[in-house]
């Protein structure tokens, strides 16, 4: 495993890539809506991640599920959000609920709470994500929320240090500059008081000229001088996403990587790793060329590993469902399956309570994720007699003219004198394990 991968926290905006995780071995993964459009896809991606845990990997698994306008994890009831909670209360109740649901779904971390202060001219990116314009209310609500997360051993993340609330611009698109912000600013004192309760603080891609003439994420004066030395923070400093325009429009890849680590940052967040893999390639080249302090990086990796031990376990409460799906499968295969094509059904529900259409709506995409170049048919008449066909059967077995046919019986056990797989289920998690069987992985 690549230990220096621990210095990166990565996200996939589109296709989740298990092989990429195995190769890079990042500190953690942030799941975005595209990775979990619904609970079906979330369950499968969690199984992909935890199948790497079975091999000895350990990742933080996080999301931006703050509540309110940033809610990403399916199957969690919507919250009115931080501003409403700041006004009414119930931060502990929401924290208890959110932490419990995150834990059940396989998460061990969340990029929350936001402790930025709402100001009259705050950017929309702060908006109702802030608890209040009152510093004391923010500290109180955030601490209640943090304690609730920690009760379920979910790692909270304070963001965005030293405070994004006074920024009038959105750092996703430009570099905000905040002139009325000094070493005694009340917005920053919130972080001082809460920092001893957390192991993660996320930086702001904002410049504060009275503190330093460089963006906070890259500022040694701000991260090391204030957060580490003045506030006494000993946890991990994680950047906001490195591909945000506040950074890459103003600094080169080498400059942001070198400055961040030298400023005492620990973990680089890349939210869109598919399109910004060059950052990892740049880092690797800098390690090889000696442009980075290797001993400093090693110290950071050891600190990250120790904090992982606090929060990251090798399984999660609802993974037993995936294990049932895997262990229930029986099959008869005459030989390994190579270069298969697939014949998939047009699912119909048997009753108002039947879930077959929902179960199978993602089947085509799932097959494509596991067998990228495979042909997928919806009619037996399209099939070539040279194909090896994996035939998903709902109720009726049609005649398929192919070189080899393997039957997957989804709604009934229809054993015949044929090659078959019986998952005893039409759920996508069961089909996922069937596909692993054909790939030669996850053999029962």
UniProtKB/TrEMBL annotation:
Keywords: Glycosidase, Hydrolase. It comes from the Bacteria. Residues 15-306 form the Glycoside hydrolase family 3 N-terminal domain. It catalyses: Hydrolysis of terminal non-reducing N-acetyl-D-hexosamine residues in N-acetyl-beta-D-hexosaminides. Residues 339-437 form the Beta-N-acetylglucosaminidase C-terminal domain. It is an enzyme of class 3 (hydrolase). Its EC number is 3.2.1.52. GO terms for molecular function: beta-N-acetylhexosaminidase activity. GO terms for biological process: carbohydrate metabolic process; peptidoglycan turnover. InterPro entries: GH, Glyco_hydro_3_N, Glyco_hydro_3_N_sf, NagA_C, NagZ_Beta-hexosaminidase. Pfam families: Glyco_hydro_3 (PF00933), NagA_C (PF21566). PANTHER family: BETA-HEXOSAMINIDASE, BETA-HEXOSAMINIDASE-RELATED. Belongs to the glycosyl hydrolase 3 family. This is beta-N-acetylhexosaminidase. It comes from Thermosipho africanus (strain TCF52B).
